[in-house]
Amino acid sequence: MDPLPGKDGKPRTDRLGLAWQSLEKALALFDEVIDAGIERFGALSVAETQTRRMPANPLIPAHFTYADALNVTLDHAAHHRGALSQYARMLGRDPKLPYLDIPDSFTEKPFMPKTPTA
User: What's the whole-model pTM score?
Assistant: First the structure.
């Protein structure tokens, strides 16, 4: 698969451009981003998240606090979870609710990365 095109139309060769090529690459990037978020948000108190503005970022309005960004991220994640659940239902699957069926949702083979065989 070719990398995703960038704004200039040329293929992106950074991790984001390549992540969609395989589930393993996407999961690795996802883990890296989650770890960075935990490090950044975890270093702040609740009060700081509600008052401290996010650093300059083309995706986040300048007036957003860390709490605002977290709320938008949670809403966005819920949107994608809902969409993926609907796609699974359209394919005849029974998606597990991550809040109630956590042990089951982590062990379903259709959603697990393939383990390399030796």
Answer: 0.60
Q: How far is CA 3 from CA 22, 84, 98, in A?
A: 11, 23, 31
How many domains does the structure of the chain reveal? 1
79 is a domain residue: yes
d(CA 71, CA 82): 17
Would you call 66 exposed, middle or buried from its count of C-beta atoms within 10 A (0-12, 13-18, 19+)? buried
> Which domain does 97 fall in, by range?
15-111
Within-domain flag for 5: no
H or E element at residue 90:
helix 66-90
pLDDT digits (tens, 9 = 90+) for 54-87: 988 888 888 999 999 989 988 988 888 889 889 8
Phi and psi for 5 in degrees, rounded to 5? -75, 145
Please report whether residue 7 resides in a domain: no
Tell me the Cα Rg of the chain: 18
> Phi then psi for 63, rounded to 5 degrees?
-85, -5
